[in-house]
Write a structure and sequence with these properties.
The protein is mainly alpha-helical. Helix content is about 80%, strand content about 5%. It has a four-stranded mixed beta sheet with strand order 2-1-4-3. Helix 1 packs antiparallel against helix 2. Bound molecules: zinc ion. Zinc ion binds next to loops.
Length: about 230
């Protein structure tokens, strides 16, 4: 191959830089998505709290109405008790009042329990509101930080791609064909630095003949993985 391995090393370094910048660029949208998920989860939780409060309040109202209706009935029974004409009738009314009073005691306890549940939900709802404010503020920060970072990364990518293009323009025609074929298929994985006496890409041991050529600064294709080999920087 009519090119020195220091040229291949430079090309590989540029290709590695490009790959690194591209992977950093891909991370941006993932960070935004993660922040958005936090916002969505907090909103959902807050909505669930609010829905539960609404439902519990309706339940408490319904039970309070039921309680008042039964109190009215008890009041009516008490009126009838005075006008009872015999003892049996009197006893029956008395038992009815006792039963309704007992039912209302149970209902009172239930109402109290529901009101306590509403109190707890209101505290949870307030906490959820605070949490939502925090994650929404975080989302805004992440959005602007990512936008800023992406702008920098795109500028950096353009710069390194420019450097690579400049290096490629200087390549001899015969090498360029092999290089383009390799890089089109494997990008930064098309090349590997020599790792002592092995291919730095697949760790296959190299023959003394190939090692000699590499030591003389001639890049060589690994016969096992096909990567273009070059000497690492000293
Ligand atoms: Zn190899």
């Amino acid at each position: 191959m009519n090119v020195s391995d220091s040229v291949v090393r430079t090309l590989h370094q540029l290709l590695l830089q490009i790959a690194d910048i591209k992977s950093q660029i891909e991370r941006g949208p993932r960070q935004i998505k993660a922040a958005q998920l936090q916002v969505d989860t907090s909103k959902d939780f807050l909505q669930k709290c609010r829905d539960s409060i609404k439902q519990k309040k309706m339940e408490a109202d319904r039970k309070q109405l039921q309680l008042r209706e039964r109190e009215g009935k008890i009041h009516d029974w008490e009126g009838k008790m005075n006008s009872a004409t015999n003892n049996r009738e009197f006893q029956a009314i008395k038992e009815q009042i006792a039963a309704d009073t007992q039912a209302n005691n149970v209902l009172s306890d239930e109402i109290l329990e529901t009101l306590e549940e509403i109190d707890a939900l209101q505290i949870a709802s307030k906490d959820a509101e605070e949490k939502l404010k925090i994650v929404e503020a975080d989302k805004v920060k992440v959005d602007s930080a990512v936008a800023e970072r992406l702008a920098t990364l795109h500028r950096e990518l353009a710069r390194v791609e420019g450097n690579l293009a400049a290096e490629e323009t200087a390549l001899p025609a015969d090498f360029l064909v092999d290089y383009k074929r390799l890089v089109t298929n494997r990008a930064e994985d098309a090349m590997a630095a020599l790792d002592d006496v092995s291919c730095g890409g697949c760790y296959t041991g190299l023959t003394p003949r190939i090692l000699d050529k590499l030591r003389m600064g001639q890049p060589f294709l690994c016969s096992s993985c096909g990567r273009l080999l070059y000497r690492p920087e000293k």
